[in-house]
Amino acid sequence: MAVELTAPAVPARRVSARHFVRLKLRVMGNNFRGQGWRIALFVAGILVGLWLAGTGFVLFATPGFADGGRYAPMVAAFGGGLLVLGWLLLPLVFFGVDETLDPARFALLPLPRRTLVTGLFAAALVSVPAVATLLALFGLVATAGALGGWSAALVQVVGVLAGVLLCVAAARAVTSAFASMLRSRRVRDLAAVLLAVAAALLGPLQLVGISALQETDWDSLTGVSEVVGWTPFGAPWTAGIDVAEGRAWAAPIKLLITALALLALVAWWSRSLESAMVGATSSGGARAKSDPTGGAVSQLFPRAAGWGRRDQFGALVAREARYWWRDARRRANLITIAVVGIFVPVLVNLGGAGFTTNSGQGFGQGSAEPSAGLVSLSMLFVGVVAAVTLANQFGFDGSAYAAHVVAGVRGQQELRARMTAFSIYVVPMLAVVSIVIAVVLDRPGWIGLTAGGLFASYGAGLAVNSFVSVLGAYALPETSNPFAMNSGAGVAKGFLTMLAMLGTAVAAVPMVLAAALLGDVWHWLALPVGAAYGLGAALLGAYLAGDVLDRRQPELLAAVTPRR
Question: How many other CB atoms are there within 10 angstroms of residue 29's CB atom?
Answer without folding.
Answer: 9
